[in-house]
Amino acid sequence: MDNFIIPDKTKKELEERMIQFLKIAEKHNLCFKQSKCDFDTEKIPILGVVVGWGEIQMENKKVNAVKEWKTLTKIKEVKFF
Q1: How many domains does the chain have?
Q2: Collapsed DSSP state (helix, strand, coil) of residue 75
Q3: Is the domain of 36 the same as that of 46?
Q4: 53 and 24 in one domain?
Q5: pLDDT in tens, 68-81
Q6: pLDDT tens, 8-33?
Q7: Is residue 54 domain-shared with residue 73, that is, in the same domain?
Q8: Which domain holds residue 71?
Q9: Strands (DSSP E) along 1-81, which ranges?
């Protein structure tokens, strides 16, 4: 399993939810690689967007890639797009 996200509004709520989540994971013998875990982060990239503080934004590298597309000038180019 990948990408567990535990939302919160306060640090206390995050701590309570995290403990509850880890207890459930332990009950079901789930293990996690510490190198793949991020704790107490304000924003996280997931599925091509950045989520955090009640906002969803496109990842900058994806936005820049679209901005750098060359302008199509021929009908044939548009057909293949």
Answers
A1: 2
A2: helix
A3: no
A4: no
A5: 988 888 888 888 76
A6: 888 899 899 999 999 999 999 998 88
A7: yes
A8: 42-81
A9: 44-46, 49-52, 55-58
